[in-house]
Each structure stands twice: as structure tokens, then as C-alpha cells.
């Protein structure tokens, strides 16, 4: 439980790098010095601003409180691992991996299918006069699992993207899972939080609002059906600003003080800004993997004719299709993804 109760949190994703958190030659090195979580491939992409009630207002009934005010002495920054995301950078991890399969695929196209989202948040690198010591500290990680995303896409409503994410939060010993579930219309995500002492589970449902200009969501306690928060996408904001609003009534105070619940919503709001290319990737993966079925049928028909020229024509046709990544022999993941799925209880030799 946190001492702070934030009524509103704003996540601002930038279109340009001309911001205070990214200025200065030594900024990257300073962040890396403060936390090992800030790796060499991290790049600052946005910031997070917090709004809270004054101590005087917290003692008043909910309806008598004034509007929450901006917290001036604390801010966070958003970073993403560009080595796993920037497919057009020939020095990135995914492009180098795509080059290993250059005999089968065009590396420039194949790298697009290997991208994986890894985002992290850190307290802003700004030491205040009181020296609270929170400058540059790691505050949370969200990693996309392509393995489970593919698994859900083939197993549920086939062909529709089902991105799957793991969250790792400081001070919390358990890995949280957040994923998109099967719906006929709209978006719906779920995550379940285990209580670290009692093991009691609480499940939350994030439901997309339809017929709105941006990507707006409502957050519900899945067991009681109560709306506990909402996430508003300011569509007309340059770059993209997401506003998280928490219920302010007294019965929601404990939930609002939960750092796990709060940080899960922050990471979700950041992820939404990357959601369109993620969904596009899964659609391409599904079509490419399913294309093998057509290829094998055409190849078997050609072989039955015992005409070598027809067999070669089929192979040549689908070789060009595969080169463009419209057909995939298989999809591979990086070692960074594989380590997400290590079995901690495996028998070691």
C-alpha cells in the first residue's frame, strides 16, 4: 500500500525527442547509473504526471473536496527498448536476427514480425532539495509475450490479435499477466492480482468504450461489477496523452493506494499507444503461418501429376511469397523472450 492517493494520472507519449528528460549528453548514462533496469537500448518516449488531493481535502467528505492538484516534486518517465521494437534500425536486435534468415525472408520485412514491446518506467532524473533518493529509480516493466500471444490467437477466436503481456513491479514478488480476451465486438483485457499475504485473488476487467474518438477504457472489478477507474485517450493531443481517473469515494481508498493496481493501469495506458502496430503484427503472423496450408495443398496436387515442371512452378511461386513474408515456415522469438518462460521448478542437472 502506498502513502499516496492519486486521483488522476496523466501519461504523455511524445512525438519528438525535444523534451527536458531527454536533453543533455549524459542523461542516458545517468539513468543507467541509477538503475540496472535502464539498459543501453532504452529510449525515453514520454512522461507521467500525478495529481493528488491536498492533505486538508483528504480529511473532508468526497463531495466537498476541491480538484486534485499537480504533484510538483515527483514525476516519472517512460522508456522502451528500441532494440526489440525499431525494425528499421539495422543495428537493432530484431534486424540482426532477421538477417540470419535472409535466405528465406527479406530481412526488412521479417524484422517487422519479430518486434516485441518492452516498456519501463522510472522516476525522473531530478534530485529535489530534500534528497528523497527517488531520482532515476525503476518503477515497473511490461513485456510482450509473443509465445502466449500466438497461443491465444490460434486457440480462441482464430485470426484476431490476442496480445499477452507480463508485468514486473518493484516490491511485488509475483509476475502479473495482462491479456486481451475473446470478444465479438470491442476490446476487453483482464488481469488478476494475488494478495501477497493471504493469496486472495482480485480480477479486474478493462473494457474498451465504443463510439469514442480515441481509445477509451473503463476499469471494473470483475467480481462485483463496480467501475473503479477509467482511462481516457485524448485523441487530438499531439503524440498521445492518456488520462487515468480513479474513483474518489471513501470505499475505493484502499484500492487507490494499491501500487500494484495503480502501476498496472499506468503500464496499460502506455501500451495502448503501441497497440495498433502490435495488432497489425499478429494479423500478419497469423496469415503467414496459415499460408502454409495452401502451399502444401498446391504442392501435393502438383506432385500427383508427376510433372516436374508443375512442382517447380509451385515451389517458385511460393518461394516469392515467402520472401515477402506472406508465408512463414515458422515464427521465432529472441532469447530475451524465451527467458520469460523458464520453468523455475524445473529439475536442473
Explain how this protein is built.
- The chain is elongated.
- A twelve-stranded antiparallel β-barrel has the order 1-2-4-5-6-7-8-9-10-11-12-13.
- The protein has one domain.
- 30% of the residues lie in helices and 24% in strands.
- With 349 residues, it is α+β, with helices and mostly antiparallel strands.
Salient structural properties:
alpha+beta; about 350 residues; twelve-stranded antiparallel barrel
Would you kindly provide a brief summary of this structure?
The protein is an alpha+beta fold. The protein has helices at 27-34, 55-58, 93-99, 107-114, 146-155, 253-256, 259-272, 275-304, 308-323, 335-338; strands spanning 6-13, 42-52, 69-70, 76-81, 118-123, 138-144, 164-168, 176-180, 188-194, 201-208, 217-221, 227-234, 241-246.
